[in-house]
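Appendix B, example 12.
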Amino acid sequence: MPQNQAMTRSLLPDLTASFVVFLVALPLCLGIALASGAPLFAGIVSGVVGGVIIGALSGSALGVSGPAAGLTVIVFGGIAALGWQPFLLATLIAGCIQILAGILRLGTLSYFFPSSVIKGMLSAIGVIIIIKQLPHALGIAGVQNLFQGGFAEALKRIHPGTLLIALSGAALYILIPKLRASKTRFGALLQPSLIVVLAGIALAAFFREISALTLDQASQYVKVPVTDNPKELLVHLTLPDFSQIGNAKVWVIALTIAAVASLETLLSLEATDKLDPKRRISPPNRELFAQGVGNVVCGLAGGLPCTQVIVRSTANMNAGAQSKRSAVFHGLLLLIAVAMIPVALNMIPLSALAVVLIFVGIKLNDLKLYRSIMARGPEEYVPFLATLAAVVATDLLTGVGIGLAVTLVIILFRTFKVAHTMSESEYRGKKRFTIRLSEEMSFLNRGGLVKTFANIPDGAQVEIDGTLCRYMAEDIKDAILDFTIEAQHRGIAVKLDGINLPDSAMPH
């Protein structure tokens, strides 16, 4: 009975929080579909699946799933390369891979990806989102970015009505957080993305009376299916093209979606758990399984791939959610919205959604993030900047690969430098050096050790201390042996401490 009473007491906070998350999610579902080059209805499908199905299966109390900005680059490229229905097949396969990963308990793999590379990837995605949404914000039809076909020529095609909507939306996005009474429930309802969309609808309606500012109904508004009966929505669900199962490109994109979506989910899961006031720990393998089931459904129903999303999860927590029922309720609200008010959704100008997405991109490139990365030194900011630049210049997989390669080079360089230490003193007029080996001496450390040996002056006394070394590769033993032989010809006295070399190999 006490448990039932606790569930009843948390029901009202969960309902309230679900409405707040719904207000955040609705424009983002549409906006991310727009940025991905997918049907806008697909964003709503993904939001519903992320809330209802993934929310029900997940072990995360406060995490909320749906279409994610972090996948827009992959989705856009995948649809361009395959077409929509074959891409849905890739999404379904990605979901199967995630289910298998959950069953095989691979949820800890995210710990092996350096945070600098992940942050660089997300920042690059933010930059790409901004570049791709500027034409929509300015009303320039038919281009993917402002530099396509010439920057000056693109600027001549700016639509004054969409520009005014975009500028008004940007002003609201900046002002609303300053006006919100964030500690009140009413303040939580003042979500900038929703206010920007509502203001865009109002301005677009007003501009219909001014011919120079009137938006084009065919190309500058949201388009979701309008039905007389909610049951008719089922007609608009799109099945994947199973005939493409043998297409290698489908499998490559599926693997990419599975890897990036799983990584983003696990990182969001970890961040959400750290912010949870009750410090609940969410099972990562169960989360991978839930995401996999959700993406299988998205592939079958015509939705975008899902991940757990930190923006919605944070909004859920700040609104006072107590359990995962909030995520489920928000998915149901999205379903009700697309079923009951599709005409209202089609009144949203694309420029208003573009502003929402541009500010998502800006958040992914927060100045605090850059300051934090730069303060950590070159070992953090070099891979971060390399990943960011490479993803923007090439594609996501190539960019992340370059970031990982740069990280590996830095690790190798550090290993080369710090696998041992050397101190210098003087004893009876002779230089005396003590070389202390670290706990792990692999073949990667051989080069640094040989360089140290080469810098020791002739006639010195050298002690090589290996008492702390738990593992010593044969390459390291060979390098020490070679030095002891060389030392005889250079007048260097060598003492080995804690290092066992074969007696037959020792110089006599």
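The chain has a mean pLDDT of 86. The longest strand covers residues 420-427.
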